[in-house]
Design brief:
The complex is a heterodimer of chains A (about 120) and B (about 110). The mean pLDDT of chain A is about 95. Chain A has no helices and 11 strands. In chain A, about 0% of the residues lie in helices and about 50% in strands. By secondary structure, chain A is mainly beta. In chain A, the strands form 2 sheets. In chain A, strands 2, 4, 5, 6, 9, 10 and 11 form a 7-stranded mixed beta sheet that branches. A 4-stranded antiparallel beta sheet of chain A has the order 1-3-8-7, with no helix packed on it. By secondary structure, chain B is mostly beta strands. Chain B contains no helices and 11 strands. Classes of the chains: A mainly beta (about 120), B mainly beta (about 110). At the A-B interface, strand 5 of A face strand 4, strand 5 and strand 10 of B.
């Protein structure tokens, strides 16, 4: 069964850092681009960042550029999102999602259940 | 960045009704559009990709149409399990990938 399982969320003070992880199983992880998508409480979906299958290509939403870093470990089938200088408006459920292609994000055909990040003093 | 405008933002419908949801792009995106369903507390689920291709396992009562700037998601006969929020997403011009604001389908 194709599965994505996020972890690493929690409550953090403004200005703090957090690293999210997403463990993939049931498919050949290195063959697919991956994305992080977030959803603030009561709000819609926002794409945060994406990475190619090799990890050589990365992209970010303007709202997180310079503060978040996406990476992947293809030997351990794990996707990461390193978040720093966190702000209250980063509070959201963060989803890990799989693209159907290697180098392009396209749409997301598999989603994890999400991990919750709360930024508050 | 590309903008996607969904309408209506919410609607009330009865079981068995035909429901249509619109998504309009601020620029032409060919057929690079997907639709997702999200239930409360759950992750989004892919329904339609490439504007009109049905994802495997999705009931045939769901269909998508359109190209360029105007797209539609249709549920031919609304079922109890279809009450949810629906989002469109474009993948023609990125980064960033962008989503519409969502349409909440509620029980009348």
């Amino acid at each position: 069964e194709v599965q994505l399982l996020e972890s690493g969320g929690g409550l953090i003070q403004p200005g703090g850092s957090l690293r999210l992880s997403c463990a993939a199983s049931g498919f050949t992880f290195k063959k697919y681009a991956m994305s992080w998508v977030r959803q603030a409480p009561g709000k819609g979906l926002e794409w945060v960042s994406g990475i190619s299958g090799s990890g050589g290509g990365t992209d970010y939403a303007d709202s997180v550029k310079g503060r978040f870093i996406i990476s992947r470990d293809n030997s351990n089938n794990t996707l990461y999102l390193q978040m720093k200088s966190l702000r209250a408006d980063d509070t959201a459920v963060y989803y890990c999602a799989k693209s159907p292609a290697y180098n392009y994000y396209y749409f997301m055909d598999v989603w994890g259940k999400g991990t919750t990040v709360g930024v508050s003093s | 960045a590309m903008q996607l405008t969904q309408s209506p933002s919410s609607l009330s419908a009865s079981v068995g009704d035909r429901v249509t949801i619109s998504c309009r792009a601020s620029q032409g995106i060919s057929s690079a559009l997907a639709w997702y369903q999200q239930k409360p507390g759950k992750a989004p689920k892919l329904l339609i990709y490439d504007a009109s291709s049905l994802e495997s396992g999705v009931p045939s009562r769901f269909s998508g149409s359109g190209s360029g700037t105007d797209f539609t998601l249709t549920i031919s006969s609304l079922q109890p399990e279809d009450f949810a929020t629906y989002y469109c997403q474009q993948f023609k011009n990125y980064p960033p990938l962008t989503f519409g604001g969502g349409t909440k389908v509620e029980i009348k």
